[in-house]
Amino acid sequence: MSPHRTGTELSSTRKTRLFTNGLYHLVRLISFEDGTRWVARIQLGGSTEGKAKKMQHEVDMMSLVYGYETYDSNPTGVAFMLMEFIPGNVAMDADGGHEVHRGNIRLNRREAFYRYGTQLSSVRLPKIGMVVQREDGSYDVGSFPDIGRPFETATDFFKAWASHAKFPKDTETIQKMMSGAPEALSSQILASVRNFPSQIAALAGRLSSQTTTAGRSQDFLHSNIIIDHDYNILAVIEWEGACTLPWEMAQFPMFLSVTPAVMDAPWNYDKNGVPVDEGLKRKWQEREEYVDMVARCEAADDKMDNKLSASLRSRKHQDLAFAVRAYVDGGKLGFYSKVAAQFQEGLGW
Q1: Is the pLDDT of residue 75 over 90?
Q2: In CATH, 1-87 is 3.30.200
Q3: 129, 196, 230, 320, 349 from 109: Cα distances, Å
Q4: Which pTM value belongs to this model?
Q5: Where are the domains of the chain?
Q6: InterPro entries from the entry (predicted)?
């Protein structure tokens, strides 16, 4: 992909307006007399040091993947970036929009769409952390804003995650949310939530056997993919969560995300572990199809290995990746201890 095909935030607008905004940023179109168009992406609510660093990490990751420049010395008091404007539309709005396709990519679109996600995993770095650009223009891996230093090993990463992990819902909130559930079930959920970080800490040395890491955008979603009229991918936006992680933390794209069966309510699956709901059953099938497509893409490129498809095929590692993210990102209720139990052999839990 050429350097100019980078984060074109205004492309995500549904109409030809001069500005729009998302949850965290205002996006404004800047037009010049010579016909050049730029996009200004400005943080809403004022910039703290942490928020500004998140944008800088995003720019550094985009610069590594695509080639990029930003102008970050400014008197405005808020972090912003300037980008070339590329006309297009988000994939979520293509083919009639969500009301027509309900968030599903048409069969004839999937191979090329999925191939791009596979290519992102070819970005390999020797440490686990956030991409940073040095003053001399070279790149390195820096610290995570929430858990600290870049990590040499997956074991160190999981230990650090466990020591910093905070479930965003308190006990009273959880009890209110489960007020209609049997007391035994509520107690089990509470215990699972409380114990999960310590279980991860105890299991840290068992969770990964890989020595390399993958660069991934954590928001690889329809609404973050810019396409043209022929569904060719022009750009990917929302890179601020992109980082390098242990292979066991590589996840499916967000539109294929499902709650792991071990975390979910048991009545959602039959005795053979098959989803009862037809929609959920279809989602699991689509995940299998996605892995098969990833494997084909890997095999077709002699510069790639099969680490991504192998990680996606591993049910227990996918369960782990989902649980680690869901625990701190919104505080999803579930049987977290059952995820950890899949790695506990020989520990006597």
Answers
A1: no
A2: yes
A3: 33, 39, 9, 30, 46
A4: 0.74
A5: 1-87, 126-341
A6: AGP_Transferase, Kinase-like_dom_sf
